[in-house]
Amino acid sequence: MRRLAFALIALVVLACGCGYHLPGRGTALPEDIQRVYVEPFENKTTEPFLETPLTNEVRDQFSRRRTLEIVATPAEADAIMSGTIVSYRSGSVSYDRNDDITEYRATMVVNAALTRTNGEEVIWQGQVSWKEEFFANDDRAQQDYNESLAQEDLHRRLAQELYNRLTDNF
To answer: How far is CA 64 from the centre of its chain?
Structure first.
């Protein structure tokens, strides 16, 4: 029992000593950045209606984490988050024995940046991407619904990834 306790204590000490931390809990941002305005994201793809749900999800991620305050106007902000959806693809990834499509994969790529409100300094910029699979269906309405659910997951995961990279400076 003592060996187990010692091993657990050693593991905790090593984990603390190596700088490990949970994603999204880093302190990579300058201390004077406390309030952020999230601009509506741009959609440079041919797939309509991707930008508003992504913008809302990014705002929600910041609000949930409470590391930074989301403000309603750029004038209230210390920094502005902007972004562009540069790519969205949906393609087949698996087939049944009759060579019918059984599953699709949706992929979205987003470029984003955090700049000071005066526009003189880019605090962070980067690109994030994510993939989600969804099932094919002979009923077109059901397949469209399945793809919309995959898009919701893409928005959520991309927003989480943006927040984590921004705060952890990956």
So the answer is: 13
33-43 tens-digit pLDDT: 999 999 999 99
Q: What distance in Å separates the CA atoms of residue 128 and residue 109, rounded to the nearest whole number?
A: 6
CA pair distance 40, 81, nearest whole angstrom = 9
Which residues fall within 8 angstroms of residue 95, CB to CB, at 6 or more apart? Answer: 101, 102
What are the φ and ψ backbone dihedral angles of 89, each rounded to 5 degrees?
-135, 150
What is the residue extent of each domain of the chain? 2-168
What does the alpha-carbon distance between residue 88 and residue 139 come to, in Å, rounded to a whole number?
23
Pairing label, strands 69-70, 35-38: parallel
| CATH class of the region 2-168 | alpha beta
Rounded distance, CA 139 to CA 145, Å?
A: 10
Q: Which two tokens stand for residue 83?
A: 């972004």
Scanning the chain, the segments in alpha helix (DSSP H) are 2-17, 51-65, 140-168
- Mean pLDDT, residues 101-127: 95
How many residues are given for the chain? 170
Nearest alpha carbon to residue 36 among 65, 5, 7: 65
Beta strand 79-95 with 69-70: parallel, antiparallel or unpaired?
Answer: unpaired
The model's pLDDT over 73-89, given as tens digits with 9 standing for 90+, comes to 999 999 999 999 999 99
